[in-house]
């Protein structure tokens, strides 16, 4: 057994073999997450044992890959601390999201992100598209509901368990496509993206994810058609990208902390954010900000935890240490992407950080692939059009 394991570890030292192994593990996780975790297929039978078993196998595989990697002292400390707190979070919260995130992050050391994103785009688009098509043919049920406001909108989850999950998954398909084609997207590509965004706003009304898709589409278009102006602006601003996660953390927590529902200004802000600030303020008052992950109860006995802001969610539910770790992780990601002149990745990371102001799915690997790219090979993609 020991000889077999040593031989396997030597094989995984080869970068190509390691890449294939990691992507198989990631694909297994993503298929399980999308098909059995967040789609409405889980209404036909209890998928929890299946997802737990698959995730356990994936975690074992990731641990083997991690043992083949070499890390600097700083990387080793950041990864070890993340894994330790991820395990504690799994014990305290009964959630494996943080642990899975850090394990993929550690295993993806020096992985070619461009090839990885190319493969993930094809897999993700196929999975999400298949669920939506099955839903439209009546094979998978939807969640429907009303969003009341100036205009009452009927929301449809399109076969997934929650409207914003649908929006987030489709947003990531759009972002990956644009990343792979950054500055070389065909006009019909932009047209198709515009149609998808409008349809998602009409059907799911997932505004945060579609805002992110619009921002990244706009950045790609500006680079493509206003190249000199865009490069000049980005070259001046991209150095600040590494501070964005920390800045948005301060802004989010400050706004939630000083929120006062009795004043007209804050009532306006609360309406603008669909009651998010008020809900987050109640969570902050009730649970505070701990050092380590803590159990947080559901919102007004609704059966779900409603904290639609990743920065406040990390602070209240996962604690100061995890929040600081993510500030460091995204500092490093943006810093290295800038050094590699991969401004397409820098802009995607910033776009997703803005998305995190409105949604808390930011650090789920199955939604946001950049969380596993902190220690990867961040060389920019060659400026060639993705084969259509």
Q: Summarize the main sheet.
A: 2 strands, antiparallel
> What's the total count of β strands?
2
The helix/strand class is: mainly alpha
Beginning-to-end CA distance, first to last residue: 46 Å
The order of strands across the largest sheet is 1-2
Number of domains: 1
Poorly predicted residue ranges: 384-388
Overall pLDDT score: 88
Quaternary structure type: single chain
Estimate the global geometry from the Cα principal axes. globular
Can you put this structure into words, describing what you see?
- The chain is mainly α.
- It has one domain.
- Helix content is 66%, strand content 2%.
- It contains 16 helices and two strands.
- Strands 1-2 form a two-stranded antiparallel sheet.
- Strand 1 (144-147) and strand 2 form a beta hairpin.
- Helix 3 packs parallel to helix 5 and helix 14 crosses helix 15.
- The relative contact order is 0.12.
Short key terms for the protein model shown above:
388 residues; mainly alpha; two-stranded antiparallel ribbon; 16 helices; 2 strands; disordered C terminus; transmembrane helix; membrane
């Amino acid at each position: 057994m020991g000889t077999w394991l040593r031989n396997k570890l030597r094989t995984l030292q080869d970068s190509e073999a390691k890449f294939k192994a990691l992507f198989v593990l990631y694909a297994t996780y993503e298929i399980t997450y999308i098909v059995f975790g967040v789609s409405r297929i889980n209404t036909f039978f209890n998928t929890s044992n299946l997802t737990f078993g698959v995730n356990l196998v994936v975690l074992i595989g990731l641990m083997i890959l991690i043992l083949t990697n070499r890390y600097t002292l700083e990387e080793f400390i950041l990864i070890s601390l993340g894994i330790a707190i991820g395990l504690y979070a799994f014990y305290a919260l009964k959630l494996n999201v943080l642990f899975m995130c850090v394990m993929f992050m550690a295993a993806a050391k020096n992985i070619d992100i461009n090839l990885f994103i190319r493969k993930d785009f094809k897999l993700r688009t196929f999975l999400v598209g298949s669920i939506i098509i099955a839903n439209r043919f009546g094979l998978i049920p939807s969640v429907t509901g009303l969003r009341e406001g100036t205009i009452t909108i009927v929301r449809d989850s399109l076969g997934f368990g929650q409207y914003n999950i649908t929006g987030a998954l489709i947003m990531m398909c759009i972002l990956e496509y644009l990343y792979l084609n950054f500055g070389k997207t065909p006009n019909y590509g932009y047209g198709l993206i515009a149609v998808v965004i409008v349809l998602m706003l009409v059907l799911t009304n997932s505004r945060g994810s579609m805002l992110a898709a619009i921002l990244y589409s706009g950045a790609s278009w500006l680079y493509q058609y206003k190249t000199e102006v865009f490069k000049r602006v980005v070259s001046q601003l991209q150095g600040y990208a590494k501070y964005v996660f920390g800045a948005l953390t301060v802004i989010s927590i400050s706004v939630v902390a000083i929120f006062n529902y009795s004043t007209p200004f804050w009532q306006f802000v609360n309406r603008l954010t669909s009651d998010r600030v008020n809900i987050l303020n109640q969570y902050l008052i009730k649970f505070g900000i701990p050092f380590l992950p803590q159990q947080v109860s559901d919102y007004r006995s609704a059966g779900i935890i409603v904290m639609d802001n990743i920065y406040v969610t990390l602070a209240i539910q996962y604690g100061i240490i995890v929040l600081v770790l993510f500030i460091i992780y995204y500092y490093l990601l943006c810093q290295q992407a800038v050094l590699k002149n991969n401004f397409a990745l820098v802009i995607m990371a910033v776009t997703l950080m803005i998305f995190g102001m409105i949604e808390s799915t930011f650090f789920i690997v199955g939604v946001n692939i950049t969380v596993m790219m902190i220690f990867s090979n961040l060389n920019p993609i060659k400026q060639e059009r993705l084969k259509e």
